[in-house]
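This section describes the prediction task in plain terms. A model, or a person checking by hand, is given the sequence of a single protein chain and must write out its three-dimensional structure as a string of tokens. No templates, partner chains or ligands are provided. The sample shown here is typical of the held-out split.
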Amino acid sequence: TSKQYVDIMKNPCAHTGRDSQMPSTPRYNRLRPNYAGQHVSSQLYPDPTVFGWEFTGSAEESRVEFFEKKMNTGAVVKLDFYYTTATVKTVLDHPTRGSNQLFRAQVTSEQYVDIMKNPRAHTGQGYRRKEN
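The expected answer:
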């Protein structure tokens, strides 16, 4: 896994099949940030691409990386990973509540892996904000 992580850091978008039609925003800038030694442990918190997420961009000043994943239902889930605090935000369509954001602050490495595998995973923490 750590070799995959190193390869991803060298060329983060090599595995993506996306074309250049993405909007010009930090979410889709395809640039990895300069972590400057501030990234949580990559051993405990592997890059989301290891779990099938597609890296789309970052906002270095906010210390956040952006990812997306198409679920088997066809819905696209967005994931923001705040790499200095291990905070995860997911944006998805909830079956009964509609489109919403779920923030989970300072998740454990076990919770992180659960969320990477299933963004609907219940961690018993976090807060929700419904999108309009």
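For orientation: Helices lie at 2-10, 109-117.
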